[in-house]
Amino acid sequence: MTIKVESGDHCPLMGKTCIGLQCAWFTKVQGVNPQNGQDVEEWACAVAWLPMLAIENSQNTRMSGAAVESFRNEMVQRMDMPAAPERPKIENINITNLLEDNL
């Protein structure tokens, strides 16, 4: 036996039946559902969208944290490498002495 769960049309903000497009909170969301990867393009109450948007936000936060950690590990690895040897500095050369020696 399968039970189909459908959302009701009770508005938690007004305490009565949803007025749909007349409500400022009735919002169109278009994108990808973070739980199943299916495309989403539908109108619903902004309050009803909050759980799905919170899940997507958590996923993006985890991905950002992983990217920062990867960048940090790369920087630590590069800091452990020996620095390039310092090039010898060229000292001031007295050109007059060089010219006199070669004459």
Strand content: 5-15%
User: Over the alpha carbons, how many angstroms does the gyration radius reach?
Assistant: 33 Å
Which structural class best describes the helix and strand composition?
Answer: alpha+beta
Give helix and strand order, one letter per element, not per position: EEHH
General form: rod-shaped
Count of helix runs? 2
**Count of beta strands:** 2
Main sheet properties: 2 strands, antiparallel
Q: Determine the N-to-C terminus distance.
A: 109 Å
Question: Which whole number gives the mean pLDDT?
Answer: 83
Poorly predicted parts:
none
Percent helix range: 40-55%
Strand order within the widest beta sheet: 1-2
Q: Could you characterize what this model shows?
A:
The mean pLDDT is 83. The chain has a domain at 14-80. 42% of the residues lie in helices and 14% in strands. It contains two helices and two strands, in the order ββαα.
Summarize the structure.
With about 100 residues, the chain is an alpha+beta fold.
Q: Features of this protein?
A:
103 residues; alpha+beta; two-stranded antiparallel ribbon
